[in-house]
Amino acid sequence: MFLTRMALNDVRRGTKKLLASPQAMHAAVLAGFADPRPTTEGRVLWRLDTTAGRRPVMYVVSPHKPDFTHLVEQAGWPTTETWQTRPYDALLERLEVGQRWQFRLTANPVHSVLDEGRKRGKPMAHVTVKQQEQWLIDRTERLGFRLVPSTASGSPEPDLAVLDRSVRRFSRQHSSVTIAMTTFQGHLEVAEPYRLREAMTHGIGRAKAYGCGLLTIGAANAANAVAVGCEAARDESSVSRVVAE
Q1: What does the alpha-carbon distance between residue 177 and residue 57 come to, in Å, rounded to a whole number?
Q2: Other beta carbons within 10 Å of 201
């Protein structure tokens, strides 16, 4: 598996087009791979981190190395800056029970509502911050981690915050798509390394094609908690480092 980081030039017209449509960004990301299909190791996952006053940063986890030349030409700095791709396996393989990491996740928190006359429930977005936080809390065990209690509050409440919430609407094949997206950040403790690796390489929840589901981790003692993006291996034998904007 590989982890890629690419800063986007948000003053360019091409960038604004991609930022406005998860469908367009999805197509642009997949165009960077000769074969973007999922493998047994994982699938292509991507996330946009946007913070006020900072340039947008795209993170991509993938089974193969990407070639984002087309993205640099459309939405980057073609003559001065490209993208950085590093092996991800070193970090994934050294996950151990009891380790604590800072994490970030953009997800699509939904629940199923069964309408009368329907055999299958219809996915409906959670609306409040509390509902969205509970959505993640309810899934931590099956994802292979537990949330660390917050030290700031002095209570057993988990160290979990919602950094951003948005509703994205875009067109897909002549129909309208609406996705509620929530960005979480907090501290986790590894409970089952295998399950956590699975979550980090195959994604969490729905709407994975549209920028949801990518969980990244960073050093638990990172100085800038808001800025942490992910932990990426420099190479197969070295320790990992925090990639922060």
Answers
A1: 24
A2: 23
**Is the same domain home to 98 and 144?**
yes
Q: What is the pLDDT of residues 133-144, one digit of tens each?
A: 999 999 999 999
Token pair recorded at residue 229: 């993006």
- Its domain, for residue 109, covers 92-244
The pTM of the full predicted model, rounded to 2 decimals, is 0.85
Q: Are residues 55 and 134 in the same domain?
A: no
- Per the structure, the count of domains in the chain is 2
What's the CA gap between 95 and 134, in Å, rounded? 25
Contact 94, 43 (CB under 8 A): no
The type of residue at 124 is: M
Q: What is the pLDDT of residues 154-188, one digit of tens each?
A: 667 899 999 999 888 887 777 788 889 999 999 99
Whether residue 144 contacts residue 191, with contact meaning beta carbons closer than 8 Å, is answered with yes
User: What CATH number is given to the structural domain containing 31?
Assistant: 3.30.70.1200
- Cα–Cα distance measured from residue 55 to residue 8, given in angstroms and rounded to the nearest whole number: 6
pLDDT for 91-147, tens place per residue?
Answer: 999 999 999 999 999 999 987 776 666 667 777 777 899 999 999 999 999 999 999
**Domain shared by 19 and 42, yes or no:** yes
Q: Are residues 84 and 129 in the same domain?
A: no
- 93: nearest Cα among 236, 214, 241, 213: 236
**Contact at 8 Å (CB) between 68 and 7?**
no
Counting Cβ atoms within 10 Å, is residue 79 exposed (0-12), middle (13-18) or buried (19+)? exposed
Question: Residue with structure tokens 């047994």?
Answer: 40
